[in-house]
Amino acid sequence: MDKKISFFLPTRKGSERVKNKNTKDFAGVSGGILHIKIAQLLQVDSVDEIIVSTNDEETVKVVEKFNSDRIKIIERPNHLCLSSTNIEEFINYIPSVVKTDHIFWVHATAPFVTADDYNLALKRYWAIIESGEFDSLISVTKIQQFLLDAETNSYINHDRSLVKWPRTQDLKPLYEINHAFYINSADNYRKHGDRIGVKPDLFILDKIKSFDIDWEDDFEIAQIIYEKYYGV
Q: Which of 12, 140, 164, 223 meets the CB 3.0–4.6 Å disulfide criterion with 81?
């Protein structure tokens, strides 16, 4: 089995919810969450290269400061950088710019996923691919809470006719895709037009590592967490 794999890290300019989300200063770090993420990725020696796909000049400035020959900046077409861009069109574009047989898609907006986490995930991926039990790997957050479908007024993960309020640890666990990372083969991208295969394995991240920066208050909360647990 060919184990050549690339990180794929997309950014774009014009973020609407948090202005310059990826590159503005974060917890005193110049270059922000993008700088933090690139530094983490460079610690993962078993990944051949880091593809940064962007149309953002500020992203390019931050990335070029690392001066690493493992990093390749690829200018993304503007029509694939719009808030209205169809994600499936973007997914189909990725194997045309990533030349390795496997793709490790990551996001700067998950600043608490570390090099150790990526190494563990990659080790797991190679194992499941070799065994044939699964065909891809996605990061998830385990949820065991009372979840209500307001439209049907029914509970999603327990039967109230049996037990009205079971212990939360006895609820059926559900899994939220947290977008920290996806690992899949380039062949599966082409075959299924998707960043996961038909039978993905689930890599569970804890609540902090699952944190995704999407809104302004997420950014502020993440800075507090970073300063407390990750800052120097």
A: 12
